[in-house]
Amino acid sequence: WQTENGVLLPSLQSALPFLDLHGTPRLEFHQSVFDELREKLLERVSAIALEGKVEERYKKLEDLLEKSFSLVKMPSIQPVVMCVMKHLPKVPEKKLKLVMADKDLYKACAVEVKRQIWQDNQALFGDEVSPLLKQYILEKENTLFSNDISVLHNFFSPSPKTRRQGEVVQKLTQMIGKNVKLYDMVLQFLRTLFLRTRNVHYCTLRAELLMSLHDLEISEICTVDPCHKFTWCLDACIREKFVDNKRARELQGFLDGVKKGQEQVLGDLSMILCDPFAINTLALSTIRHLQDLVGQDTLPRESPDLLLLLRMLSLGQGAWDMIDSQVFKEPKLEAELITKFLPMLMSFVVDDHTFNVDQKLPSEEKGPIPYPSTIPEAFTKFLQENRLACEVGLYYVLHITKQRNKNAFLRLLPGLVETFSDLAFSDIFLHLLTGNLTLLGDEYALEEFCPSLFDGFFLTACSRKENVHRHVLRLLLHLHHKVAPAKLESLQKALEPTKQSGEAVKELYNQLTEKLELRKPSPAEVTETPSMELPLPTVPTPASR
Length: 545
What we know:
The protein has helices at residues 2-5, 10-21, 26-48, 54-68, 78-87, 93-101, 103-108, 111-118, 122-144, 160-164, 167-176, 180-197, 201-215, 219-222, 228-240, 245-256, 265-274, 276-296, 304-317, 319-325, 335-360, 377-385, 387-402, 406-412, 427-437, 449-462, 466-479, 485-494, 503-519, 523-532. The chain is mainly α.
């Protein structure tokens, strides 16, 4: 039996006794020969997949699959069967069903085979993608609530290319491969989840996924996605954090080029523009344009570049409504936004300039001119009723905070208590604001600053919005040593978590309490302090002797 089933090499028979002398079992020898043959076979299968005419090579692989598939559950043969399937562009339906029905086989097969299974099984593909999408959203939220508060390293710091190297985007890119059907499925999942949750991070993923496929030059998908060139151009703007004139013209060309009957593409474009990284770039560019217009004595309505930025911001902000209503029409810009609100923002910039000039002039008898402390009622009304005005207004507040302009900040802060759908209490704005507020460190000791910031703004929403509670605690963890002790004590009481508070709030509060405990002087120090203040005994100097 051994002779019949052994390796039929005449020269081998005389050599085998040597292995016996070394105490090597025949099983070990045959196993190593088997492994070696399997490796050679795997190499051969990969080679067949690349040589000869297309029909011939796939015919060979199909024959091989037919012969070997019955052994697919044998662990030693399974890699060969999986390799054959991996190299077949179309595995026979019957075989795919057998793989799908067996959990272990499904787990063991290559992603190339899984793609063929997924494209006809949306539910199964959804089960694979769903945990990745959850992980992605969680990562974004963790970044927004990170304990490291800094102006230099915030949510928007990583470049688009760096973000695309993230685990989730890379895994999804690999799962999709060049399969347009799977790409469309992922986009459908993202649209559905965006509609269901209003979470704008799904819009970021939509753009990142397309650009990740662009990086790999997968033309099969990029050429059929109508948003590809628009997203590519916008991606360059996001990288520079500014929309220059040349790219603005390109973007405008894409928007103007939406043909009749293809309006549906506006839904996808609006989702790309709703990505917080796009909104951030457009809003920063808007503020920069407004400042330039002040210097040029030009009104907003006379600047086509500014109007284009507003048009794109408006389209991005209307993404949810457009996809929900399925009415694919660009939202109209309100005339009052351009004729009243933006000139009002420009007047705030002028107020700053005139105040700074007044400070430098020699003071006359009438005394120094105070900084304007009131805000026009119309400003507050715009922030409450107009989404676009609210977004631009909030970015102006971030701008003045970054410039350490305490006067302008305290002037506009009361206008942020009530804003359009509570945008001033959204995570992205609060994440950026807390970062910028670290620059005003020395102002926290001043009498009017903390009451305006904490009592007048943050604490108005803490009880009803847990995310605000978390952001205030993040800020205090970073700046508690700058706040006056009495104010810190009252804030500690006001920020104490309730029974309904989540774990994250309790954890942050405990961290703050620990930090404040460490700062308190120990009882020993307190008792010693008075003795240090006793008058020192007079010591006669050598001269007085």
